[in-house]
Specification:
Number of helices: 9
Order of helices and strands: EHEHHEHHEHHEHH
Distance between the termini: 22 Å
CATH class: Alpha Beta
Strand content: 5-15%
Bound molecules: ligand Z5A
Structural class: alpha/beta
Strand order of the largest sheet: 2-3-1-4-5
Mean pLDDT: 92
Low-confidence stretches: none
Radius of gyration: 18 Å
Shape: globular
CATH architecture: 3-Layer(aba) Sandwich
Helix content: 40-55%
CATH superfamily: P-loop containing nucleotide triphosphate hydrolases
Length: 230
């Protein structure tokens, strides 16, 4: 087929991940950002980890019910990796290839923090699993929502009501403090990819902070040209 009649490939979508501790407001903010991007005519989907594809949702149940906890953090890491592998190949990559923006609630940084920093899984194993599951796929931007632990736990408790805490919600204050520190360290170490956003404010204010971070990181002159051509 000559170049003149080849169907035009849309520009690849952008991949934005959201990270942070419990109750930091990821799900709330992902939805607000998706609404804003869709309104700007940028086709956008939201998804989550663990889960996001049929196979990965089954593994999510295994992990969050606590059934896998007895096997230790290495095995839990392998299960998170298996879920990610399915999610990336079935949902994330096809959407990006079609020019859709993908907003994902948690991704590889969660494994680095929860299983790596807190579970003490060898970083070499974490990196090896990343090579297998995501290859060269790297988020264009990672929003890390930062909130004091007491506030995050209070929000999560309020939302949970009388329901039983899941595998990770059952952890204590010091676990969540270490988590927060680990996320701040990731943001500090990779400022090109990560934006640390102060999430200790009302949802609308946090959404504006995220929009600013997105503009600063992604909407360079080249990106605006590329997306308006699509
Ligand atoms: N995990 C892992 O260990 N390794 C991995 O590789 C991956 C994950 C991928 C998934 O839990 C667990 O899996 C997670 C890490 C582990 N464990 N924890 N904890 P999940 O998907 O069930 O939940 P989560 O990711 O932790 O998110 P969350 O606790 O559900 O919260 P959130 O999404 O960050 O927040 P939210 O649902 O938007 O808001 C929580 C409540 O606060 C809700 O009532 C809101 O209305 C309220 N809210 C939100 N924003 C505000 C503001 N700005 N002000 C006041 N109130 C607010």
């Amino acid at each position: 087929m000559s170049d003149a009649v080849k169907p035009k490939q849309p520009p690849r979508g952008r991949f934005i991940t959201f990270e942070g501790g419990e109750g930091s407001g990821k799900s709330t903010q992902i939805q607000l950002l998706a609404d804003r991007l869709n309104a700007a005519k940028l086709r956008t989907i939201t998804t989550r980890e663990p889960g996001g594809s049929a196979g990965a949702e089954i593994i999510r149940h295994l992990l969050l019910s606590g059934m896998a906890k007895a096997f230790g953090p290495e095995t839990e890491s392998l299960l998170f990796a298996a879920a990610r592998d399915d999610h990336v190949s079935q949902v994330i990559e096809p959407a990006l290839a079609q020019g859709t923006w993908v907003l994902c609630d948690r991704f590889t940084d969660s494994t680095r923090v929860y299983q790596g920093e807190l579970g003490k899984v060898d970083p070499k194993l974490i990196r090896a699993m990343e090579r297998v599951t995501i290859g060269d796929l790297k988020p264009d931007l990672t929003i890390i929502l930062d909130v004091p632990v007491a506030i995050g736990m209070e929000r999560a408790l309020k939302r949970r009501g009388t329901a039983v805490p899941d595998r990770f919600e059952g952890e204590g204050v010091s676990f969540h403090e270490k988590l927060r520190d680990a996320y701040r360290k990731i943001a500090e170490g990779d400022p090109q990819r990560c934006a640390l956003v102060d999430a200790n404010a009302d949802a609308k204010t946090v959404a504006e902070r995220i929009w600013k971070a997105l503009r600063d990181h992604l909407f360079t002159v080249a990106t605006v040209r590329e997306t308006t051509k699509a």
